[in-house]
Amino acid sequence: MTTTHTDIAIIGSGPAGFTAALYASRANLGVIIFEGLQPGGQLTITTEVENYPGFEHGIQGPELMDVMRKQAHRFGATSRYELVTSVDTTVRPFVLKNERGDVTTADAVIIATGASAKLLDVPGEKDYMGFGVSACATCDGFFFRNLHVYVIGGGDTAMEEANYLTRFAEKVTIVHRREEFRASKIMVDRVKANPKIDFLLNSVVSEFVGTTVGSAKKLTHLRIRDTVTNEEREVAADGAFVAIGHQPNTALFAGVVDMDETGYIVTQGKSSRTNVDGLFACGDAQDSIYRQAITAAGSGCMAAIDAERWLEEQRAHA
């Protein structure tokens, strides 16, 4: 078992974590980034990213994360490809342990653990994620101009995604397991009034089907099961958006920091401060509304500045 100390420990990578690391390390603070089980975050399973400023012709998600990582490393931040399994916030400095029991102490901690899209967990879903299957219409809708896409879900998220996709797609079909929707009535009415949207009710997607030629993949069909008759059939699909919600990756801090009813960390006012002094949160772990790479990066900047100022205050009164 080893013990290491740092000024700031950042739990999680992705745009929020890497931006926080960049700002904190440029402030001459010691920074360790715990990159966890998915180094680089959700963008590492995304293909083309065209809506991140500074890349006129777009950039691949994994490449963008690698550039951000290297930029933070340039100023002295260190990445550890480890999973933080516990954080003791009752002592100062904070005590973090990884899966091997190694200890890191930190004067301040920034939570950048992100959120994960809830998925159907059916065959083909992960295989074609980023190759016709998506969990973010705002991120990927542009790529489906004049095509027929499907939205899977029955809540407000699904209704919002379907409406948004009609800006690009020629046709949007909502697939839902029941006839009734969990979505609010106003959202359902808005979708029903949109001539580009139709419905496939009492239906679930049992498989995502496509072609793979070498390293090139492409979704081509959905296998649909009727929940009443149990019969299955295939429908042609240019794209499919899984819209059954997101789950913030915040279980590590359950009962420690204030969260809303769905597990997103509540930050104070316009800051990144949590209810625990010295513990800050940024990115999708505390953002249930926008969930974009650029907003995550912006909140990572905020968290680093908040943490830097807090450390200055603590050390001035030490």
Layout: helices, strands, pairs:
Elements: E1 3-11, H1 14-26, E2 31-34, E3 48-49, E4 59-60, H2 61-74, E5 78-80, E6 84-88, E7 94-98, E8 103-111, E9 115-117, E10 133-134, H3 137-140, E11 148-152, H4 156-165, E12 171-175, H5 185-192, E13 197-200, E14 203-213, E15 216-226, E16 232-236, E17 239-242, E18 246-248, E19 279-281, H6 293-316
Parallel strand pairs: 1-2, 1-8, 2-5, 8-19, 10-17, 11-12, 11-17, 12-13
Antiparallel strand pairs: 3-4, 6-7, 7-8, 9-18, 14-15, 15-16
Helix pairs in contact: 1-2, 1-6, 4-5
What does this structure look like?
The chain folds into two domains: 3-115 and 247-316, FAD/NAD(P)-binding domain (3-Layer(bba) Sandwich), CATH 3.50.50.60; 119-242, FAD/NAD(P)-binding domain (3-Layer(bba) Sandwich), CATH 3.50.50.60. It has 318 residues and is α/β, with parallel strands linked by helices. Strands 1, 2, 5, 6, 7, 8 and 19 form a seven-stranded mixed beta sheet that branches. The protein has six helices and 19 strands. Strand 11 (148-152), helix 4 and strand 12 (171-175) form a beta-alpha-beta unit. It is elongated. The model has no long low-confidence stretch (mean pLDDT 93). The chain has helices at residues 14-26, 61-74, 137-140, 156-165, 185-192, 293-316, and strands at 3-11, 31-34, 48-49, 59-60, 78-80, 84-88, 94-98, 103-111, 115-117, 133-134, 148-152, 171-175, 197-200, 203-213, 216-226, 232-236, 239-242, 246-248, 279-281.
